[in-house]
Amino acid sequence: SAVISQKPSRDICQRGTSLTIQCQVDSQVTMMFWYRQQPGQSLTLIATANQGSEATYESGFVIDKFPISRPNLTFSTLTVSNMSPEDSSIYLCSVALPTGVMGTGELFFGEGSRLTVL
Amino acid sequence: QQPVQSPQAVILREGEDAVINCSSSKALYSVHWYRQKHGEAPVFLMILLKGGEQKGHEKISASFNEKKQQSSLYLTASQLSYSGTYFCGTSSGAGSYQLTFGKGTKLSVIP
After folding, report:
1. Which residues does residue A115 pair with via DSSP β-bridges, in sequence order?
2. Mean pLDDT across the stretch B36-62?
3. Which phi and psi (to 5°) does residue A97 adopt?
């Protein structure tokens, strides 16, 4: 299993500002992801955080808006830039650990960072 | 493409059974089920691979019909602790750890 710590757990931000979310994992993991979950909604994958290289973004998400760093195998940050009220959401860090069943991974999630943009 | 879950919500009394369905329009390699309680992180329940296998986890089991690209989660003799939102997540290939999640099914178990 994996234990994931996220900071901050929640924040209230002003429109136009940026906020960086930190994700710390208790063990080295290869696969790390950032998801967004709007209240009462599904989980949407933002990007895969790649160690030592640029993150891989999903359709609809761009690096200028959501820059990601992954300096090592236990840590990543997600920045939400130039925030607007539409960015109000829960941002979840996630890691995948192989299950032993070929080609599948079990996702472990952090508790999430709840951002409210005014 | 986002899988479709049904029903959107269900209310059960303790001891009753429920089925949650997840279907996709594209070929799937695996289907994953997670449960999320209010204010908490999603928690893994089980994975099913194409091949129509059925897996069980205490009184919660699931099946995967590869031909129909459908999976069903079965909750029997529901307990209060089963309350939460259930998400199915799908992957389209081996080694694809990124999941596409459905919109979720909110399950409420009442005494």
Report:
1. A11, A89
2. 81
3. -115, 135
pLDDT, mean of residues A71-95: 96
The answer to whether residues B64 and B71 touch, using CB atoms and an 8 Å cutoff, is: yes
| Total CB pairs under 8 A between chain A and B | 62
A61's tokens: 């998400």
Q: How many CB atoms lie within 10 A of CB B67?
A: 7
Flag if A107 and B2 touch (Cβ within 8 Å).
Answer: no
- Asked if B94 and A103 come within 8 Å (Cβ–Cβ), the reply is yes
pLDDT value of position B2: 92
A106, A108, A113, A114: best to mutate for the B interface, most B CBs within 10 A: A106
Distance, in Å, from the CA atom of B91 to the CA atom of B32, rounded to the nearest integer, reads 8
- Condensed to tens digits (0 to 9), the pLDDT of residues B13-45 reads 999 999 999 999 988 888 999 999 998 999 999
Q: Distance, in angstroms, between A48 CA and closest chain B CA? A: 8
Other Cβ atoms less than 10 A from the Cβ of B11: the count is 12
Task: Please give the Cα distance from A36 to A50 (Å, whole number).
Answer: 18
The predicted-structure confidence for A24-44, as pLDDT tens digits, reads as follows: 999 999 889 999 999 889 999
Cα separations (Å) of A21 from A7, A67, A69, B99? 6, 11, 10, 21
The dihedral through the CA atoms of A49, A58, B42, A9 has a sign that is: positive
